[in-house]
Design brief:
- The structure is a single chain.
- The chain is an alpha/beta fold.
- The chain is built from 26 helices and 14 strands.
- The strands form 3 sheets. An 8-stranded mixed β-sheet has the order 7-14-13-8-12-9-11-10, sandwiched between helices. A 4-stranded antiparallel β-sheet has the order 4-5-1-6. A two-stranded antiparallel sheet has the order 2-3.
- Helix 25 links the parallel strand 13 and strand 14.
- Helix 2 packs antiparallel against helix 14, helix 8 runs antiparallel to helix 13 and helix 9 runs antiparallel to helix 11.
- It is flat, with a radius of gyration of 54 Å.
- It starts with about 60 loop residues before the first helix and ends with a helix.
Length: about 750
């Protein structure tokens, strides 16, 4: 460990360092360098960090597919290996196939119809007939009898043929092998079979054909007659059920006093209208009772006041209701109104004659009621006049009697409503019962009609007598079908070749890896700070990295100097001092970028400190030849002072704080607020502080450190970095408030590096 004032970390002892001035905070004899940078206004890559929106959808392009093929070129060799193996296996397991066929013709003979009319077998019957014959050919009984038949050449059963003898279930094997089909819409039935030995296939196909003709064509009429008998028996059973249900329906209808279901529905409507009329009258009586109670209260109040009064029209109307003749006319008018509502419900046309007759009666009653009102009103008004108490007693007595009558009428109406509701419910239940019975009868009639149709079809089939003619028995084919074998073998080999090739290329394409530096601004809207050339081979990359760090002029150093220039311009515009270098995931060149950028800043005369912030997987100390301990972990745990961890390097103007020995305590200390003070002190002692941070998507440490830096640079690697991961890393950094300078693209070709300044200027 170096002492605080060790000359080894004195900037005067490091080449390329500038003069030393006073500083608020020094580490040993290190003091901050004062320098002036040209002011750069509106640098395009220091624009606000607002994102361009969601990640663009993946678009299939020829260039993208070619780049995926370039990365997975070895899939061709894998496909060739798999395809060759598939060819060999297919050649062994796909035998040569010969097909033999026996051809039969099903004659579509015209069918006898009623009278002299004749027509061909209907298409649906014909299709059903063909399907039935195809099924009969492949029944186990047919195939068993065919295998038990004698071989005409040897006289032995066909079940002893070599192709059958090797099968455990000969009938099941033959059932799978034999094929029956009808070419096109013709009446030709083909019985065929495929196999290696055509002579054995011919014997089996001919045996199946002959057995089918001998056993099933002779029994077809018997089967049709049995089917016809069963249909007639079924029809008789349906007829018996229909007659019994019809008797039940008629008996129930007579019990309910209705001739049919329509009459029940009419009675239901009338009962419903009568119930509604009672309910309306009950509502009117209730309203009159309420008015009468209010009148009693008003009479009592007037009697208490003791003044004369003029009877109101309402009181006169109530007195009129006490007159039997007047009340009778009112009741008759209500009955006519109920009849009118019932008639309006029964008739669709509201202007029917019955409705008009009822309305005429209502109009006559209205005239009589009005005339009687005019005759009785003067007498009632005179009887209600005079002394308040005498008239009040008389009115009170009349109102109370009227209220009692209304209460009695309401009680009677409630009983009538209950009775009408019960009758309506009974009618509703009876109507539903008759509906259900009627639906059952309709269903039976439909089934009987369907069975009659089936009987007619069966009779026509029985009379049709369609013969089956053998057009050609199976024979040994003259030509071989080996071309089918070649085609199948070639197809399997080609498919086996394409699956790994296409699959691997498609998988690589879906990963959306970076192909060119243009993918960054176009797909993600991320600024391109610079491009770094591809290094051929690990040894060569190590030597170039070391040469760049020590000041040698290499393509890598030139590219890093371009990134340094962009950073120094941003420092002049935004006072950027602490820069975080990270990547979406590991092995994307972030450590190389951090070390080379720090060395380049040192070569430019800027006192630079490189901090290995990747505490879990440190590697920057190996690139600069510095011991790993003590370092940042010890500073976080407060085991050493900051100046004790600062190490000089062989590069001009470059110092380093390695990662140190990592443990859980260091990780917890990293999240505490004191870390910000550490970075402030380091920024005061150096011109630039470059932090080699862990990947954003694999460790949360980068986001924790990022909250204390001025800006961040994302390192991406051609053919390794994926567009969605770069997009996610960008958004995570911006979520915690990290200002993103842009990306540095590793692995660029020469033509891409020449285009880099133009791209960055977009």
């Amino acid at each position: 460990m170096l002492p605080p004032n060790s000359p080894e970390i004195n900037p005067a002892n490091n080449r390329g360092n500038s003069a030393v001035t006073d500083s608020p905070r020094m580490y040993g004899s290190l003091v901050p360098m004062q320098f002036e940078l040209p002011q750069v206004v509106n640098a395009p890559w220091t624009s606000p960090t607002a994102g361009p929106g969601p990640l663009p959808a993946m678009i299939v392009t020829v260039g993208g597919v070619l780049n995926s093929f370039r990365r997975r070129w070895w899939s061709v060799a894998l496909g060739a290996l798999v395809g060759g193996l598939a060819l060999a296996l297919a050649w062994v397991f796909v035998p040569a196939q010969n097909e033999v066929e026996a051809i039969l013709e099903l004659s579509r003979e015209p069918m006898e119809m009623a009278g002299d009319r004749r027509q061909e077998m209907p298409k649906d019957v014909w299709e059903n007939y063909k399907a039935t014959q195809a099924t009969l050919v492949k029944t186990r009984l047919t195939l068993m009898n065919a295998l038990n038949s004698k071989d005409k050449d040897t006289g032995r059963p066909l079940s002893e043929l070599p192709v059958v003898r090797g099968e455990w279930d000969g009938v099941g094997w033959l059932q799978k092998k034999i094929r029956v089909w009808f070419p096109g819409d013709a009446s030709i039935m083909v019985i065929g079979m495929k196999g290696e030995d055509p002579q054995q296939m011919v014997k089996l196909v001919n045996a199946v054909t002959e057995t089918y003709l001998n056993e099933f064509t002779s029994n077809e009429k018997t089967r049709q007659r049995d089917e016809l008998t069963k249909l007639k028996e079924h029809l008789q059973g349906l007829q018996t059920s229909y007659d019994a249900d019809r008797k039940k329906y008629d008996l129930r209808a007579r019990q309910l006093g209705a001739l049919n279901n329509q009459e029940m529905q009419l009675r239901h409507q009338q009962a419903n209208a009568a119930l509604q009329s009672l309910i309306n009258r009950a509502q009117q009586v209730t309203s009159l009772m309420t008015d009468k109670k209010v009148e009693i209260i008003e009479i009592k109040q007037r009697m208490q006041l003791g003044s004369s009064y003029e009877p109101s029209q309402q009181m006169i109307d109530e007195k009129l209701l006490e007159n039997p003749k007047f009340r009778d006319k009112i009741a008759r008018r209500e009955e006519y109104l109920a009849q009118k509502r019932a008639a309006s419900t029964s008739f669709v046309n509201p202007e029917a004659a019955a409705v008009k007759r009822i309305q005429a009666k209502i109009d006559t009653l209205d005239a009589e009621i009005e005339q009687l009102r005019d005759e009785l009103s003067p007498q009632i008004r005179q009887s209600l006049g005079g002394d308040v108490n005498q008239a009040g007693q008389y009115q009170l007595q009349g109102a109370e009697q009227a209220l009692a009558l209304l209460q009695e009428e309401l009680t009677n109406l409630e009983g009538a409503i209950t009775k009408a509701q019960t009758e309506l419910n009974d009618l509703h239940t009876s109507t539903g019962e008759l509906d259900g019975m009627q639906q059952g009868l309709d269903t039976l009639r439909q089934r009987m009609a369907m069975v009659n149709t089936e009987i007619l079809k069966a009779q026509l089939n029985l009379e049709a007598k369609p013969p089956i003619t053998v057009y050609n028995m199976a024979s040994v084919p003259e030509s071989s079908h080996d071309w089918m074998r070649y085609f199948m073998v070639a197809s399997l080999g080609g498919l086996a070749f394409c699956i790994p090739v296409v699959g691997l290329i498609a998988w690589d394409f879906t990963q959306r890896r970076l192909n060119t530096s243009n993918d960054l601004p176009e797909a993600l809207g991320v600024k391109l700070v610079g491009t770094i050339p591809a290094l051929a081979g690990k040894r060569k990359s190590k030597s170039k990295e070391a040469a760049g760090a020590l000041g040698g002029r290499t393509p890598l150093a030139d590219a890093i100097d371009g990134v340094r220039t962009s950073l120094m311009r941003d420092a002049a515009a935004e006072s950027t001092r602490i820069v975080l270098v990270t990547s979406p995931v590991g092995r994307e060149g972030k450590t190389t970028l951090a070390t080379q950028l720090a060395a380049s800043l040192g070569r430019a005369g800027r006192r630079t400190l490189l901090i290995d912030g990747d505490l879990r997987h440190p590697s920057a100390h190996r690139a600069l030849g510095v011991a790993q301990e003590p370092g940042l972990s010890e500073i976080l745990r407060s085991e050493i002072e900051i100046e004790e961890a600062i190490r000089p390097t062989r590069a001009n103007g470059l110092w380093m704080i390695p990662a140190g020995r990592f443990d859980e305590d260091a990780l917890h200390a990293l999240a505490r607020d004191g870390v910000q003070e550490v970075f402030k002190e380091l920024a005061a002692g150096f011109d630039f502080v470059i932090i080699d941070a862990p990947p954003v998507l694999t460790d949360s440490d980068a986001l924790v450190i990022g909250q204390h830096v001025d800006a961040a640079i994302i390192s991406v690697l051609r053919d390794i970095s994926r567009v969605p991961q770069v997009f996610d890393a960008r958004d995570r950094l911006r979520t915690v408030g990290v200002r993103l300078l842009g990306c540095v693209y590793h692995g660029a070709k020469a033509e891409q590096r020449t285009l880099r300044p133009a791209v960055a200027a977009k």
